Amino acid sequence: MKKVLVTGGLGFIGSHTAVELLAKGYEVVLADNLANTRPDVLDGIERIAGKRPEWVNVDLADQQQCGEFLAAHPDFDGIIHFAAFKAVGESVDKPLDYYQNNLGSLCLLLQYLRGRPECAFIFSSSCTVYGQADELPVSEGAPVKPAESPYGNTKQIGEEIIRDGVAAHGFKAIALRYFNPIGAHPTAAIGELPLGVPQNLVPFITQSAAGLRGALKVFGNDYPTSDGTAVRDYIHVVDLAQAHIVAMERMIDGRTAEDFEVFNLGTGQGSTVLEVIKAFERATEQKIDWDFAPRRAGDVIAAYADTKRAAEVLGWRASRSLEEAMGDAWRWQQSLGESDSSGATGGK
Ligand code: WQD
Predict the structure, then answer these.
(1) Domain of 119?
(2) Does residue 153 have its Cβ closer than 6 Å to ligand 1?
(3) Is 178 tagged catalytic?
(4) Same domain for 248 and 326?
(5) In 3-state terms, what secondary structure has residue 175?
(6) Strand partners, 92
(7) Does ligand 1 come within 6 angstroms of the Cβ of 172?
(8) Residue 199 beta carbon below 6 angstroms from any ligand 1 atom
(9) Which pLDDT score, from 0 to 100, does residue 148 have?
(10) What is the pTM of this model?
(11) Same domain, 89 and 29
(12) % of the chain residues with pLDDT over 70
């Protein structure tokens, strides 16, 4: 049985990836220091998978803790690295924490690969590396633009660190540049757990619909788009999780064309904010109370993925619709119960 480390494994995308790995018979080890999640996510993973993966509470940016943890696991066949701080706005206020945490942990994990180059490495990157792309849909060849935030910069620098590590030490890696991950597991046992006021659109919508937040503010109605609101490529988190397994198995099976490969992960479909609201209302028969507000600093006008490379080279394509994601997100929100918006595990 092959053994896979999922860092940030109790987080939003990490927990959904853990479920998919367990379903495929992998031995899964989760590393998570609960910086941005809750321990009972593990119960949700177990409820879906029927088995409880090992979880280690370790700060991967701490040299001693990370070193001891990795020394105790000399036999990983794959590492899927999600663990990072990821709040764009917060990164502007705390850039040094973001660089130290996100890049320090990455370097320590890459040092492990020097001693185990056969271990496949997947890096959680982001479409934010493109900024406002000059051409849409956005392909992997689009120029990486100066980051709009320290968070985005940690993804850009992270890819460069990996590229240099691959060139110097001969291990392999794949960076997956996500567009906008949304939704939850259809069982409603795991989902997104934004701590505090959600910065992202979909969790704000579900909390507003649940009566936990006031009216949704739609940031900007004067963009050059079909209805004046900004366009994004919203991809179901289960589609995203499955893409990670496909990419990891590509490396494990020795099918990579280069030692460092990059893939955009999106649906290829752009949706405006108003279209997302309508999709939610159709999927859930809930009415969303919203009003326009000024544009949010740092937002791009439009971003949606060119899915050709992922389809033709990776052999993967998203299959779940925006409406399906809205329904799954709503069932997850309902499972969290009324009081606790920062979420115990759902699935009650
Ligand atoms: C989507 C659209 C907002 C909230 C971010 C990160 C990106 C990735 C995904 C980590 C925008 C609008 C939002 C609200 C709104 N995260 N909006 N009212 O900014 O595209 O991407 O999350 O990898 O790196 O940058 O996602 O969900 O915040 O915003 O109108 O209350 O919804 O202006 O147009 P974003 P988002």
Answers:
(1) 3-182+235-265
(2) no
(3) no
(4) no
(5) strand
(6) none
(7) no
(8) yes
(9) 86
(10) 0.96
(11) yes
(12) 97
